[in-house]
UniProtKB/TrEMBL annotation, chain A:
Residue segments, region Disordered: 1-61, 94-116, 335-383
Chain intervals with Acidic residues compositional bias: 335-346
Listed CDD domains: TAF5_NTD2 (cd08044), WD40 (cd00200)
Organism encoding this protein: Sinocyclocheilus anshuiensis
Location(s) in or outside the cell: Nucleus
Gene: LOC107676012
Protein name as it appears in the record: Transcription initiation factor TFIID subunit 5
Biased composition (Basic and acidic residues): 22-31, 358-369
PANTHER family in alphabetical order: TRANSCRIPTION INITIATION FACTOR TFIID (PTHR19879), TRANSCRIPTION INITIATION FACTOR TFIID SUBUNIT 5 (PTHR19879:SF4)
WD repeat residue intervals: 417-458, 490-525, 532-563, 574-615, 616-649, 658-690
GO cellular component term, pick one: transcription factor TFIID complex
Main location: nucleus
Amino acid composition bias (Basic residues), ranges on this chain: 1-10
UniProtKB/TrEMBL annotation, chain B:
Function: Functions as a component of the PCAF complex. The PCAF complex is capable of efficiently acetylating histones in a nucleosomal context. The PCAF complex could be considered as the human version of the yeast SAGA complex. With TAF5L, acts as an epigenetic regulator essential for somatic reprogramming. Regulates target genes through H3K9ac deposition and MYC recruitment which trigger MYC regulatory network to orchestrate gene expression programs to control embryonic stem cell state. Functions with MYC to activate target gene expression through RNA polymerase II pause release.
Identification of the protein by name: TAF6-like RNA polymerase II p300/CBP-associated factor-associated factor 65 kDa subunit 6L
Species annotation: Sinocyclocheilus anshuiensis
Family of the protein in this entry: Belongs to the TAF6 family.
A Gene Ontology cellular-component term: SLIK (SAGA-like) complex
Positions of region (Disordered): 397-418, 475-572
Claim: Cell wall biogenesis/degradation is one of the keywords in the record: no
Pfam families per the UniProt record, alphabetical: TAF, TAF6_C
Record field: compositional bias (Polar residues): 505-515
Swiss-Prot/TrEMBL keywords: Methylation, Nucleus, Phosphoprotein, Transcription, Transcription regulation
GO MF: protein heterodimerization activity; RNA polymerase II general transcription initiation factor activity; transcription coactivator activity
SMART domains named among the record's database cross-references: TAF (SM00803)
Species classification: Eukaryota, Metazoa, Chordata, Craniata, Vertebrata
Chain segments annotated as transmembrane: none
Residue ranges occupied by any TATA box binding protein associated factor (TAF) histone-like fold domain in the UniProt entry: 16-79
Amino acid sequence: ARHNSYRGKKMAAVQDAPMELDAEKETKPEILSDGTSNLSGNTASGTLSSPPLTAGGAPKQEDQQTLIAVLQFLRRNKLTESVEILRREACLEDQEDSQTLDGSGGGKGDGDGGDANSLLSRVSIASAAAPQSTLTPIPVKSEYDQPDVSVVLSAYSQQGDPSLYQVYYSSLKNFIESVLDCHRAELSQLFYPLFVHMYLELVYNNHENKAKAFFEKFSGDQECYYQDDLRILCGLTKKEHLKGNEALLDFRTSRFVLRISRDSYQLLKRHLQERHNNQIWNIIQEHLYIDIFDGMPRSKSQIDSMSGSFAGETRREVNKAKVFYGLLKEPEIEVPLDDEDDEAENEEGKPKKKKTKKDSMGSKSKKQDPNAPQQNRIPLPELKDSDKLDKIMYMKESTKRIRLGPENLPSICFYSFLNAYQGLTAVDFTDDSSLLAGGFADSTVRVWSATPKKLRKVKSAAELNLIDKESDDVLERIMDEKTASESKNLYGHSGPVYGVSFSPDRNYLLSSSEDGTVRLWSLQTFTCLVGYKGHNYPVWDTHFSPFGYYFVSGGHDRVARLWATDHYQPLRIFAGHLADVTCTRFHPNSNYVVTGSTDRTIRLWDVLNGNCVRFFTGHKGPIHSLAFSPNGKFLASGSTDGRVLLWDIGHGLMIGELKGHTDTIYALKFSRDGEILASGSMDNTVRLWDSMKAFDDMETDDFTAATGHIHLPDNSQELLLGMYHSKSTPVTHLHFTRRNLLLAAGAYNSQ
Amino acid sequence: SSSQSGMTEREERRFAEVPRESIKLMAESSGVELSEEVAALLAEDVCYRLREATQNSSQFMRHAKRRKLSVEDLNRALRWSNTETICGYGAQDALPFRPLKEGELFFVEDREINLVELALATNIPKGCAETMVRVHVSYLDGKGNLEPQGTVPTAVQSLSEDLLKYYQQITRAILGEDPHLMKVALLDLQSNSKIAALLPYFVYVISGVKSVSHDLDQLNRLLHMVKSLVQNPYLYLGSYVRSLVSSVMYCILEPLAASINPLNDHWTLRDYAALLLSHIFWTHGDLVSGLYHQILLSLQKVLSDPVRPLCSHYGAVVGLHALGWKAVERVLYPHLPAYWANLQAVLDDYSVSNAQVKADGHKVYGAILVAVERLLKMKALSLTLAAEGSGAGLPGTTTGAVSFRENSPGLSPPPEPLSEPPLGIASHLQAGGAGCPWEEWTPVSLPAMYCELYSFFGDSLAVRFSTGLPLGGVPPPGPCQPLEGRKEPASSAPNLENTRKMPQLTASMNISPRQDGSPRMEPQPPSLAATVPGRSLARSSSSSVSRSRSSSSRPGRSTSQSRDIFPKARFPLPQAGPPAFSFIIGGRQMGRRCQGRRFQTSFSPTPPLTTHPPRAYAHKLPVIGRVSKPVRRWTCSHYSLHLPL
């Protein structure tokens, strides 16, 4: 299917609706929710991917007028089909609206997802917060006509006299440069979106030379972190180019968000009205969303720390939704007394005696974390006996864990991939550090044993018939000793493997590839079990839920998908990013998924309802690594700009910036207790950061929490505990063993 | 498969462009005729699409965690936008992009490959090694060296298997027992072009000289290794040359454990090391020029340290000798009076217990003699050259210069002086670094130098000098004799003049060399240079300002004067004018010291008295205490860093 249309078109069929929805939800909530329903052709999908529809923004009246204008334009251009679509949406508006508002819940998945439903039905949810009774697999939307691109573009043809844009822009520039310092920084935020919109409009209206002149004159004024965007714009000089360029269509369809204090906003408004500068005002009205707040205007550094994304800043209310970031209660598992290691330790330290009954971890988590979600908010797989054994192992190991801190840094072991001429693209360790998987650009996945224990396959069916199933060591007997080897190759993909992830029980391995599929491999037979198709475009990353069963993937089609291993179709589609989803991670409590994107934003999604509950901006480059702190409260993100940003999930705030790396950060990991954050980068270094200090230093007063205006202390140097060089080996992956030994992995680069 | 492209000259562009001409050409080649506008539009669109594809392909590169965009990345981007991919560019090596002279045509070179040959080729490439994972503890407890490089042994392990083997074989062969194997290894080390990566390890091995100072043989082998490395034209020694030099210096200067046994011929080792040092400076002057002063200083320090054994002193002397006659002139020569006292004491001790030390002393004596001999010869030669140069360049500038030219008629500049001072060093020496003790160094005129040296060595110097190879400036004995006769009066005249000026000289002692030159005036270009300290000897003739006065006062005579100094000093002097000579010395060395020197001149006829060869007698200076004191003052004024004896 992939070759019949240009990428943007097909993707739009799946994505544009939610995206549009996301972009314009402020002003046209009703229409948008309709759009979703229409496009998907399934009224049940209302909750799947739509972010919360908050009220506010421009009054409804304006929307109506816009609609009428658009309809007129369409008719004039004989775009009857589009007219019809738009009309239908407008007409259906009220009925659909009501349906959306009263909760798109109850038993809607019985159509397409009915069969899948049964698989999950054993677990029921009795949560007041979620109307659904089950996690319903929702089918991917069918192909449907997308709104014509020109509709979107047409908006550009109506705004003032393009030949005067230089004048408009200059006058605004002069005004902003003349206002008081405290307002200037805030109003300067207008430059970039206005510049881009005006430039695009000039291009759209075939004023090629004027556009070039406009670009020449004002591109130098833009913030340096927009350089990449400007480079794309610079090459775009024809209307035809615009049509094919999704990035800029996105820019058009989304409204660039600015956060400006009320004072500054009034100042701007007064100025524009006095000067009758309607063109600027129209563009602001049309393409920008100005999130006004009361209080002190922000400083330049405050603004800079939050800006840089493709679609402006976060609206504050977007991050107001409640997030249950606490950890789930650990299941109570009896720890057997018989361990001789424990005995030895107990001789030395007598007070430890008590723990033999129940593990300290288990008893601690008996008290329900107030921030934790309901235990069964998301149906989770039941623990098998082997899982319980593993938990016991984990607890034993964690008693031997080294307490890390600024004075006690972890030892680092480096796993070097040698002779990886084909290109190492992804690495993962199992939680117990016993296995190591590498994804390669030659489409292979290789699994190594990181312990002396060799990898063995299960015997063939014929041989299995011969063994004594009643014997005690049946698990040993089923393994084929002849196949023992240090590593196993997994063949199946037809493109570079960009992401690998082990299941927590070490029975499965996931790999995502350029060929558009995610594959599930058995680590018992070392064969491929399932190929999950759905992305249709390169899948950049995949990650297993910490409880197994679910996994998330994200790719070039700008969506992240939630899957269950026993479903061949995704359960959720998380749409909203304006560009590729480059990395995906599960929250430790498995209720949330975080995604990082090329649009330089991070989104946190609720697995239950598919809503985007957190939206973080501040990175100045594509995000390539994400890591949750073990307590689930914090998130670290690393990007191509070499910076690590720290986020408080509960408050929805940026709380730290770690500068130091000189190249893309591909690996981030918190130590097991969360005291140390390790970051690994293309610059061949591993750096250790004092994450405890970073979290403690954050401002936690109510005002900050309410407004989101943070003052980032420039304390990267204090927080940097250590920098460790590898020998021309980019750090691709980092992992803390259960005892807090840091493992790093990367391919030795001989050039 | 050749493609054309070129930068448009219309305006400056941020991107490479495909000009419309190329588009038209491509269309023509596929049989389509394009109008100008269509071609222009197409060209622009093609450029945009190319940029777009590049933009998209960068994403594949980023996710492959690479820094280098590959053809494969671009092909993926093309494939995903439903464009035909390009084939045939999968090679890892960069493709040569060549211009064609006629017409601005650029193309990728696409050679034809003979498949038959390829198929039947016997050198089948080995397959890539299996991808594997190796783990090592990089940093224990967060501590580790912050240097990316580990210690040498661990670093060796990371070398390629072949290199490692080579390294082991070579070191084993060189340090092993088999002389033939050693020769082969050294020869290979000298010519192998692929061992750059091993250089640090070889240097490390060589730096092990300190641990084998008891084993002359090993030291010798290591020095040979240095020689091979230095001579290898493919190696860039870079900063490792310092380490090599320090190892060589160790062999030259240190009182090696091996030298305790008198049977060990450590002298040869030192000679060889000095030769090597000179070789390094000669061939890698650019790398070591910064070291020159450092080395001179350390040599001087050793020389002036009476506690050091004589073998170290010997090393210092041969080291200086190896660094060139200018080094000898600057360091050894000024230091000689002070050193002489000590050496004298050693040589005068005839006790049995001193026999060994005395033998060592004779070694040093010989080395000094050789060094000063060359100093004198080279200096004479340089003067001649200078004279010739100036004569040719500026005819008639100074009479003195002309006279020198006459002195060596028809003699072309011999090759030796040119090769003697390596360029970098020579200039360094002349210029003298800021604040370095040589800054204040003032050249001593050749005759004065000869006289002083003669006072130490007596006839042994004279004999060597006259019997040595005929140097440029020194006429053969035949023609020189007649000159002698002529010059006799001439030489006495300045001497008389000199004595007349004595009171002045004593008044300002510490600049004695200069004073020494001025009274004698015109004849000596080198002495004139004294007025311009640090000026190149070769160019000193051009500093005619100071000279002009004197030369004008005595035109014509300068010629003879300059000529006769040498011959006189060479042979006739001892018998012809001991009084005259004593005058010269007196004038040079001040009244108080002239006593001692005069002794020397009177000693010169007495060589047959002892069993030693003639040159060994000259050093029998009875009054040593007197010499040392003024010398120290003199020394102090010139060498602030110098530790007086």
